[in-house]
Amino acid sequence: FRRRLVPEGVPGLMSVSQVDTAVGPAAGERLPCSPFVLGEWVSPGTGASSFVVENPADGSPVASVAAAGQSDVERALCSADEAAAVWAGTGGWDRAQVLRAVAAVLRGWAIDAGRVLSREQGKPLAQAVWEIEASADQFDWYADEARRIYGRVVPAKDAGHRIQVVREPVGVVAAFSSWNFPALLAARKLAPALAAGCPVVICPPPEAPLSTMLLAEACRRAGLPAGVLAVLPGDPAELSEPVLRSPVVRKVTLTGSVPVGRILLGVAAAGIKSTSMELGGHAPVLVFDDVDVRAVAAMCVAGKFRNAGQVCASPSRFFVQRGALEEFTDEFVRQTERLRLGDGLDSASDVGPLINERRVAATEELIADAVGKGATVLTGGGIDPGLGRTFFKPTVLGAATSEMKVMTDEPFAPVAPIIPFDTVDDALREANAVPFGLASYVFTNRMDRATAAAEGLQAGMVGVNTLALATAEAPFGGVKESGFGREGGAEGIEDYLVSKYINTVPA
Ligand code: NAD
């Protein structure tokens, strides 16, 4: 079944209609953009505040969203607490069925949900549709994992003792995620948590909350019991306070920046809550001189400027072996100049706008710092004023050095600095010289170089001759300040389970 999801313009203040989900050509229904509590979209009470979601391409309003108020937060926590035992007691096979149905609903919506995502976040439609499908993959993958939560029987030292280890859901989860992949990042939390038997209270990113709401609506239609999921739109800094202080919440999971990770970890520590942190990255790419330089440059350009560089695992520091430097740089610039910058909904666009003008200013600052320290802008370098204030031209920096901020601070921007290296050891020293350790990449045809680099890179993930790392069946996550915990793979559900040891001595 295919459903059409057509975002409307902004309704009047406090009105909540913004995503029109017409089922078939005749029947129409509306998905309110408001808090989702106890299995229902809450009508905002008198005096409730709302905020406008803007299309980053032109600032035009996409939707007006009712923010969660104090009573919504209290009801969400209370209903999650009550639902915890019910959902944990629902068998893995039954939970799997619900998750499988969520995936099916999302796949049926892929194109139109992708359109909503593109409008609220800016990315090209093809990337947005991929993201909805990748979100469905998460639910499919964890539908299977829900049926594979195994325990152990341990041979006991003392005769007559029977030791079992069983795996139980950790309890109510508070989830926070970023706007750069507004559907996928939320799905990476919801799917494993729900599979493990945990209720979730999620605060969507205010820049792009609609995708999380679509996931919640998919869960509702798939038959997820009321209370197991709550969505609280609004200012996460305000909402996180009562949510994280609540004794109901036993687990906190964030996808976001290192500074916000520090804040949430502090509050979680006070409540002795379990945490998972998917934080920033600054991925090194090691390109050795034995590769097909043109092919690797083309791959790197596509990866670097995907989602306008606003990707935690984005290849963002290009270390190129000196023998390949000139050819790689020329080809990288040539391929970059072929990219078409434009509105995400224009099928001709390869690269969309940045999420807002603050990201533009931050990117300009990084480039100014690099140029001030001797870098050369080989292409790009600023916005395309003909398109609008958020359209930043894909930028390549030559003569980069490790003193530049673009090499030390997470850029989260369409900027690619290129820097030469001579030996594997030199490259590894430079690559590991930042506090981040999320993704890393190496391109070589030689096994010895691939092995040395893969083993020597301080990162949670290494792509050898590929930039494709985000996939439902593999554990995504970082080391060092990039955080801890894993999303995806068999590991992902572990973050939502605790071990209970039972020693039984027959009476
Ligand atoms: P951010 O840390 O400012 O915000 C992330 C989310 O945290 C917000 O959407 C919100 O839900 C919550 N939040 C923000 N401020 C808060 C506060 N004061 N208290 C409580 N919650 C708060 O990050 P951002 O700018 O939205 O996203 C970019 C960052 O996210 C980058 O550093 C990027 O690398 C990281 N990221 C990491 C991954 C990963 O898997 N490791 C994936 C995507 C993005």
UniProtKB/TrEMBL annotation:
CDD domains the record matches: ALDH_F5_SSADH_GabD
Keywords of the record: Oxidoreductase
Domain spans labelled Aldehyde dehydrogenase: 42-501
Keyword Ion transport: no
A Gene Ontology molecular function term of the record: succinate-semialdehyde dehydrogenase (NAD+) activity
Pfam families linked to this entry: Aldedh
GO biological process: gamma-aminobutyric acid catabolic process
Assigned protein family: Belongs to the aldehyde dehydrogenase family.
Protein name: NAD-dependent succinate-semialdehyde dehydrogenase
Source species: Amycolatopsis acidicola
